[in-house]
Amino acid sequence: MTQKKNSRDRAVFATRFGAIATTVGSAVGLGNIWRFPYEAGIHGGGAFLICYMAFVFLIGIPVICAEFCMGRQTRSNIFGAYRKLRPGSPWYLAGYIGILASILILSFYSVVAGWTVEYCLTSAFGQLDFTDTATGHRQFMEMTTGWRPVVWTVVFLLCNFIILIGGVTKGIERASNILMPLLFLLLVSFCINSFTMPGFYEGLSFLFSPDFSKITPSVLLGALGQAFFSLSIGLGCMMTYASYFNNNSRLGKTAMTTALLDSMVAVLAGIIIFPAVFSFGLSPEAGPTLVFEVLPYIFSQLPAGVIWSTLFFLLLFLASLTSTVSMSEISITYFCEEKKMSRQRATIVSSLLGLAGGLVCALSFGPLSHVTICGQTFFSLFDYLSSNICLPLGGMICCVFVGWFVDKKIIRDQFTDRGKYRFPLLGVLVFCLKWICPIAIFVIFLNSIGLLHL
Ligand code: TRP
User: How far, in Å, CA of 413 to CA of 299, rounded?
Assistant: First the structure.
């Protein structure tokens, strides 16, 4: 992707395709392929999917738009964006939620990305053995319980660090522009393979036929958190990326394309995982380990399974890297622009923070598994706090801010690229930002802590 410097010496993506490719690169990652199936599995399948889709369209897209609008208008990090639009007001404090959430997410995300690295290498050396479910399970436990995950988490964070410090972000993005469509093709072929599985109908009806009685407060909160996590919204990530967009990047279209592609990948992952879960007699409620236990069985059924699995885990690793690069960017721009650190120093500081959190999460399947806070290990606590609390909260603040406190002329200018294009949905967008999104998020919060019974 070509970048050029604008007059204020900030990098700008040269093309609209560049803008879309990077936002999709950030959005598509473990959130779609690992987190979506496991969340759907524990939250009743179809009931979860329907809430998730509703939140992506009703809340997710307006929040992406709000972040895009703030980012491109101010061309700053999350703190600077709030400050420039409302000087002297305390709105910028919302930035701290973003920084906290980005470090928490980086921590547990790196552990799962570390598993993909290990699976990729083990598979490449022909050592993944999935002759039966018991062997597969034992193998997964060996990989994730002792101290081994620490090594792979560190390896992954090191890759992330090297990309950020070496300034090869452009390189990885260029590579991912070619490799992400390949990942998509691979997912489509696995999906077709799902049709041949004995548990195909059972899997599909688990995912697509909603049982409305299963929609509980925790399903609603889980689906909301998943929508935010998967779209990379709520902590200023899309805001930071939009600050690099050029002035012709049609924000509305970019937001829509990102949300559609991202949801499509999640649904494809569901169509791959659930038929296999039912075919092999596993439980959809396995939690974070679900996908890693199920996928290898799928590969073992395929001709030349080793090649498929190595390629798949390699692409998943790259998809995770484009996502962690985007979430690291939030704290890096904060340290650079607000704390006046050099970019190099900022990268070191934020990587060390991620490393500290990553180590704690990596050990929470093994030596630290008995350490729990409110009944949750560090891994699940970090995941819950960031995805279900910080992201929706950050998103709610952003909606209220743009809907109520940003001049409508600024919003119109941003969505029409200063009058160059028409944007007929402006009224709908502002209405969603003012009313629908904040009220929906607030009600879901109240409902989940038991103060309100829907
Ligand atoms: N959306 C990414 C995924 O699905 C994860 C991610 C990247 C993210 N940047 C983020 C999540 C910012 C929340 C906020 O894998």
Answer: 50
For each successive 10 residues of the chain (454 residues), what is the average pLDDT? 47 77 92 97 96 97 98 94 96 95 97 96 87 79 88 96 80 76 93 94 96 94 97 95 90 96 97 95 90 88 90 95 92 90 94 97 92 92 95 97 97 95 95 97 89 65
Reading the block at residue 247, the tokens are: 């002035």
- Nearest residue (by CA) to ligand 1, atom 2, is 27
166 by Cβ neighbours in 10 Å (0-12 / 13-18 / 19+) ranks as exposed
Kind plus residue range of the DSSP H or E element containing 12: strand 11-13
The residue contributing the CA closest to ligand 1 atom 13 is: 232
In angstroms, the Cα distances linking 337 to 108, 138, 296, 349 are 26, 47, 44, 14
The CA 221 to ligand 1 mean position distance, Å, reads: 17
Answer for the pair 327, 106: CB distance below 8 angstroms, yes or no.
yes
Question: Residue 390: CB within 6 Å of ligand 1?
Answer: no
| pTM of the shown model | 0.95
User: CA geometry: angle at 66 spanning 61 and 68, to 5°?
Assistant: 95
